Fold each of these.
Amino acid sequence: MNNKIQDEFVLNANFRMDESLRMIKICLDKLSENMIWQKPNETTNSIGNLILHLCGNITQYGIASLQGLADDRNRDEEFSVLSGYSKNDLFQKLVTTVEKAKKTILEASTEELLKKRAVQGFEFSGIGNIVHIVEHLSYHTGQIALWTKILNNKDLGFYDGIDLTVKNED
């Protein structure tokens, strides 16, 4: 892989993960400790469960797989926990996990990024794993944002002070 392309890919993947962290932090700051464990209904997950799930997924795809480490994820547990973590605990756990993944991605060789590997029964290259963790983190960030909006009936202000109507430039 061209080093410039690899560097740009890694830079953008890491930026997107940081953006999701920023948005999740905004959401958590708007919620009480009890709200993070509330579920809209029995078929959905609490924000606490989603954050634990994100940590498990990012570790499995973005750290263990890319580093060739043992996969010791217990996915079912991520959804069965009903309490025991504060907002701060959850956010710090997520930040630590994302930072480890970003470091792993940054240090991955071209060969590791192109190498195919099996994760959760799927076969992806290292690049495929990175795309997965970025989109998966973004997907659940959107769920966290929606549930936060529903709980508070307020805009989250993710882009306060930024004019999002500016047109693209050549």
Note: DSSP finds six helices and two strands in the chain.
Amino acid sequence: MIQSLSKESETAGLKMNLTKTKIMTNSIKVDITMNGATLEFVNEYTYLGQLISPKDLITKEVNTRIANGWKKYWSLKEIMKSQDLSMALKRKTFNTCILLCLTYGCETWALTKSLRDKFAKCQRAIERSIVGTKRQDRARNTDIRMKTKLTDVLLRIDQQKWRWTGHMMRDKQGKWCKAVSEWYPRDGKRSRGRQCIRWEDDIKMTAGPRWRRVTQDRPQWKLLEEAYAKRHTEIRDIL
């Protein structure tokens, strides 16, 4: 199969770089050779800036996003920690640069309470660094937020997921992301114990079990966005 795809690519003027071609599987590994070179198996890889992995994907992706957010923050430390620049400029820099690094690809995440706490702790640490306080100062998080007025990262994650969900389900082009969200496995058995958080679980809590129908009503879906985005202290966050 891969050999035929390689030949078709060469016919179209494309050539596969075997040194950069990797293979990932959640089944049995079988050696694949092309043009005398054996392709390498990997357990995870990054595609278009987002981590792909068959095991514990969300946790790894969240850790990567937080690390990238801190890298971006320290690359902008001349602005974020300056005593001469206004808080409005720092807030705009955070919202347009750092926040995007933290929330890239968040529309596809199924976050547990511990993962949401990681984002909250990261943003609180960034805010303390901006205003120049330490944890030993015992400053209240609400007081620091009143000074910085940064966009809440958890609020942005929820807004992005809700808006993208409505856009995806109303799409008429038959994209694979919609097909995957509607797919229901009918073979196999569920493992014992508590099940993992699914991507649609928190959406059901706001829009109900028939949320796919609700997405077709754009005004109604828009009205439910605020209710969904502000449920940080409700049952969803204790899952």
Note: The CA atoms of residues 79 and 86 lie 9 Å apart.
Amino acid sequence: MRAVPVFLYHSVSEDPPDWIAPYTVSPKTFREQLDRIADAGLTVVPLRRLVAALHGGPALPANAAVLTFDDGFADFYWTVAPILTERGLPATLYVTVGAIHPPGGEPTGSLLPDSRMLNWRQVGTLDAVGVEIGGHSQTHAQLDTVYGQRRTDEIVGSKKRLEDAIGHPATAFAYPHGYSSPAVRRQVRAAGWTSATAVENKFSSATDDPMRICRLMVRSDTPDSVFDDWTAGRGSRVGPIRESLYTRGWRSYRRFTRFVGAPVGGPPKD
């Protein structure tokens, strides 16, 4: 299995809120990028096929790619899903459970700034038409800086709420902001999630860690040349990745700022 580009999108919109705009592509750009994927001879496969291969199952096609979307923006229902449907492409949507609107009510709360998010009816419809629905925690917290019951609620509680809503097991998880730690990954696995995606801006591979799958984040300013390199298996390293001293230091800094009451904030850096 060659390097596998697992593309990470957030919002696909013409008019996103300022906070998510750097992580948003327009519908026109999204269509063009799907064309580039096809023109490169890549076959878009469901994430579960990559996960099965990483767990020792059947190998992927030689030129596989995966599409993933984080957070649960309403534009996935109105814009992304119709485009994927017309092209017959699979995708995984990771929803921040606390940001999803219940029938006739308000969401229970997340750390994401205000934006138009999906409701549970829409999530159920997407699930019914074949979009894989995964979990993205309860509130979009930095999981490697929270502990005890709070972390359990984010990992275990969000899984229960998601499964209650869609009526069947959910097995795919994505770390908010891409942040995890060995302890977080152990808890995610113990909760019954069989895969988890990070970011790392690296390709996945046959030897990638199924609890820390590498992805390539598509941003509003991702140049066409970079995207073309990704579709050709160039321009980035291949996972699995080992934690660097920088990663450990950055985690320690974020834990310290949270401890002193000034946590590192800002938009999601999945």
Note: The radius of gyration is 17 Å.
